[in-house]
Structure formats: C-alpha cells, structure tokens
Amino acid sequence: MKVTMKDIAKEAEVSVATVSHVINGTKNITEDKYKKIMRIINKYNYIPNSTAKNLRQKKTKTAGMIVSSFPDSFITEMVYGVEERAREMGYNLLLVNTNEDKNYEEETINLLHSRMVDGIILSPATNDIEYLNRFTDENFPVVLVNRYNNIVRNAPKVTGDNFQTGYDATIHLLKHGHKKIGMIYGVANVSTTDERIQGYKAALDQYNIPFDESYLELGHATVNGGAAAVKSLLNRHSDITALFVQNDLMTIGTIHQIREQSLKIPEDIALIGFGDFASAPIIDPPVTNIILPPDTIGKTAFDALLSKINNPEYTKHIEMPPSLITRKSCGCK
Amino acid sequence: MKVTMKDIAKEAEVSVATVSHVINGTKNITEDKYKKIMRIINKYNYIPNSTAKNLRQKKTKTAGMIVSSFPDSFITEMVYGVEERAREMGYNLLLVNTNEDKNYEEETINLLHSRMVDGIILSPATNDIEYLNRFTDENFPVVLVNRYNNIVRNAPKVTGDNFQTGYDATIHLLKHGHKKIGMIYGVANVSTTDERIQGYKAALDQYNIPFDESYLELGHATVNGGAAAVKSLLNRHSDITALFVQNDLMTIGTIHQIREQSLKIPEDIALIGFGDFASAPIIDPPVTNIILPPDTIGKTAFDALLSKINNPEYTKHIEMPPSLITRKSCGCK
DNA sequence: CAAGGATGGTAAAACGATTAACTAAGGAGG
DNA sequence: CCTCCTTAGTTAATCGTTTTACCATCCTTG
Fold first, then answer.
1. For the HTH lacI-type domain, which residue ranges apply (chains A, B) (predicted)?
2. Which residues contact residue A270 at a Cβ distance below 8 angstroms, ignoring those fewer than 6 apart?
3. What is the pTM of this model?
4. Which residues in chain A are contacts of B95 at CB distance < 8 A?
C-alpha cells in the first residue's frame, strides 16, 4: 500500500511530528535523526499527501482558470500565459472550459471553491456575473480577465483596451478614406465586443459619420461563421468598402467569402482582422491585424491573482493597449 | 467564517452523519428532517468541502494532464478534447505544461500523484520515461497520449498512426514523381517524429530510393525555425523538389522562406504540411496537409484513462489513422 | 406478548498531514 | 546546588468529510 508519514515515522522510530518537521524544516532536528529520516524518505520515494496538507493548511497552491471558449487562439495563449506564470510561482492550474455556458460557469465556480483553490481567474461567458459577488464579498480571490463587468465588486481585472482597439482599427480605415465600414464579431453581450463597438462609434463620430447599427454583424466565431456573416452583411450593404473582423477564424472565413464574390482585397474591400495568427503575413494579400497581447494578459492576470491573495484590498483594472500591424489588406504599402 | 457540515448539523439539530446522508442519499431520512436539513443547506449555499471528501474517499474526480508544449495547435486541440470528455464525465483537469523539460515532467507527476489525481494523461517530453514504471507498476493509472514509448509497462496509449502519416505523405509525393524529398521536423527523439521518419523510409524503400539522413532537418517548432530549417536544408541539397513539414508553424515559415528564395510552390518545390490550420485553404497556393485528429485523440485518451481507472488490466494502444487533404501545394489539381 | 426484523439516526474512527502546547534533558549562571 | 533557559522531540488536536458499527424504536408475526 501507499506509504504515509506514519510508516516513515515508525521505521525511523520517531513521531510523525518529527518527520513533518524534517520535511518542512520547521524545527531543529539532530543530525543523526535527520539523516535517518531522510534516508527512509528517499528509500520509499515518499512524498507527503498534498490533499491532507491542503485540508489542514487551508490552501492548495492551486488556481482555478475558467474560460468560455477553447480552443480559440487568443484564449489559448492567454491560458498559456497564466499557466506559465503559475508554474513559475509554484502553483497548479485547474482548467475548465465552459463553452460559453453561463450556468455551467456558476456551477464551476462553486465546485472550484469547494475544492479550496486559492483563487480563480475567470473569463466570463456573459455580462451576467452578478452572482460572483457572493464570493468576492467574502474576499474569495477572483480575477476577471479579458472580459469583465463592473457590477462585480472587489475583483481585480486584467483586460485588453478594447475601446482603443475598436477606435484604432476604425480610425485607420477612415484615414484611408473609407466611409462605409462594416464590423463583424463573434460574441454578443460581452465587454470585449461592446467596448470595441464603442470605439468604432467614437471613431465614426470624429469623422462625422452617423453610426448605423446595421453595419454590424454577429456570427459564429468560426471560419464558416465569418463567411456567413460577411455574406449577410454585404447583402444588406453593398456599399461597404472596408471591414473590421474581430476574430482570427472569422477573418479567414471573410477572406474566403470575399474571394468567392470575386471581390479584391483591398481594392474593393479593405480588411483589418483581430489577433495576429501566424499565417497572416503569407496570405494574399497579407492581412493587417490589430492585436492585444494574450500571453501578457494571462501572466498579468496571474500576478493580479497573487496580489489579491496577499492583499484583500487589491482591486486594480489593468488594461493593455492594442497595436496595429499594417500589411496590405487594409490598403497600406 | 466558512460554513461546514458541522454548522448545518447544529442548526438542524441532527448529527453530521445525518447531514452527510442527506447530501449523498446514502440512507433513508424522514421527510421532515430531510426538508429541514435541505432548507438550511440552501439558506447558506452550503457545498461540502471537496478536499475533505477527497481525502476520506481517496479519489478526487480529477485527472492530471501533462503536455510538453503549449500553445501548439495540435496539443491545444488535444487538451480541448480531453477537457471536454472529462467535463462530460464529471471530472476536472489539472493542466501542466512542461515546456519539453523532462525533469520538470517527473516532478510534476510526483506532485500530481501526491495530489491524489485519479490518473494522469501524459504527452511526454522525451522517449526517456522509464521512471513512469514506478507509478504504473503500482497500478497508478497513466495514459500515454500522442507520444509514447514501449518501455513503459501497464499503460494504455492513444496516439496517431505516425508511421502511416510519414508513409502516406511520402508516397503521395513519390507518386507525383519526386525523388529528392526533404523532411523538416521540430522535435527529436520522440515517437511521433521517429515513426514518421520510419514511414518516410519505408515509402522511399518501396520506390527503391536510398534513404539519406541528410535529407532530414531538425529545427525549432516555430515560424522562424521552419524558415531557418528549410534554408539550411536547401543549402545542403539544392536538388530537393518536395518537402514534408511536420508542424504547422514550421510550414508557414517554410512557405515564407521558399518565396524568399524566389522559388515557386509547387512547381519548384512541392509541399505537404502536417495539421490542418484554418488558413491552409486560403494561402497561395492552398496547402496540402496530412492530418491526425487531435480532439478525437484527446477524447479517446480520457476514455482510456477511465477504462484504466475502472479496470487495472486495461492496456490498449489505440492508433488513429491519418488523412491527407490535398490542395495545390503538393502539385494536385 | 415475546422474539425478530426493519428503520432512522448517531458516535466515533478513519483519511494523512500540520502545528500548538507540552515535556524531559542538558547546559549555563549565580 | 538550584533555577532557568534552550533544545529536541512528542502528544494530541485539528482540518471537514465519509462510513462502519452500533443503538434505539417501532412494527410484524406467530
């Protein structure tokens, strides 16, 4: 059977407390006892049971990470950032994907909380996260990442600056002389989309172009979803000369569909995508993207979680600025 | 403070055992006591502490998943498959990325084992996994996924058929008349690479072409790594007319580099990549890929883990066949 | 009505560690 | 030599559940 601390103690003819002290360095132990105990520990490859330790110490060195869509390159790289920083800090990660299911998200938080994770990093499925206050009000550490909502009290947030993202992309297209700019997005009622739309609006406003909601199109965040969305959008507004697509897979679907309609990028339709997928530079034409740094967001989110764990007062909203990578698809060069 | 079963029991004027029986349905409880207890449970939003439960029951409904590289689209989708099936089965996933670090991998297994995960799904960093026998010999459930090594006893394996993958890709190029076929790969000394090389060899053999190791090139599994690898390879063998690239990012780097050298795909160099990245059809020329189904591999791996948990005798090696998606880059159409 | 079987509930021992409080022995100092 | 401190080590409580074994009580049934 599995060897426990008791077994080690028995064989070394000491108490379990002494063994524990040897392992954790919590008390001076005489040289010979120390060596004897260590020898037996190594002999059996003994490693203390973390579950028992966690129960007693009420901490697990584990963080919960809940994402709403997976795999999605942005989310994936964010998870990577979180995992990497967690690993550096000696933490483990309990990863759950909710598939944009709000109810499952709430269940999951309950579950992870009951598993005594030290805190949770959450990219929520919807704006509807009032329920989180039940946890945050009791100072259970929750960090909102990527998406957020200000109805949640007492939680740090780490996100991209999505207003700026929408604004910068739109301004760039406006500067190229476009007036009819369509926007395609993959998820509704989340802060990322909402804020990018606000940025889009603000940019149009600055150029005295009235905002028209029918120039926005919601689709599935997939290649086919992008193709379908652009088809429907162009059907409605054949006067569109530029597009901002908020998701990499949808961007690829968009390019597909535009070619299908025998239109030229950027001559007939200029294009800015979101997120810098690896193949962007070798597509014809190379795709201009506006990007936010997912891995940095992930790492920063874990740092924020640690800050929150160590200081219950900590509630900062950190926003990462976007950057525009211009290639030919927007009409540049 | 946090409410425990004891608190519930006190308020309901029953023993903790009764509360536990109500929650788990392990004993008949009279209607009125049952209702009273449930009312109090709901009032406090009480959820039993999983850590205590896990310790007592010696199971955690948690699987460890250890991968060697992340993010990497193949691995990511595999993780997705595992997570999805785990979720369906009521399991959680403790995800760790070892970044191809063998020592960290061993440490991690020790740690997860001490955390009493019910089993581990491992995509090992190297072939050097003899140490696993320490666990598998004691019937601790370990499933090898993607990469494997037969020195490990008593472990199910779920992988792609990589021999067939190398064979099919090479045969396809040979059928197009190529005789000087280069191969670029991103990791050495792992079963995936080794077996694809074996498949490549077998295909050449069938066409009576002698195998020459210098037609293989190892690079970093990145865009730049792919570019550098193909540069070095073409430098060594300017007679190469076809390439099989074993990784999506490297494929993109390869295309970059080939264009850089003013060569045409597929006229000067035919190309087959591995893994069907979304943009493959819209690159010029569209990229032929040979693929293995990462999400199915992931799901199957979790199923295998469950089988192993329920039946210590279970040790099956499941291999998924590849499929070739032909587009123009290999000279088809 | 006594014996036997269900039935509903509880006490207490696990699970495997950590840690506060205690003890015995040895050494130092007056 | 007595007192007091250190020091090394132990005892036992604790973390929050589950679960076995036991105990009443009530119901049958002959």
1. 3-57
2. A173, A176, A178, A241, A242, A243, A329, A330, A331
3. 0.95
4. 83, 93-95
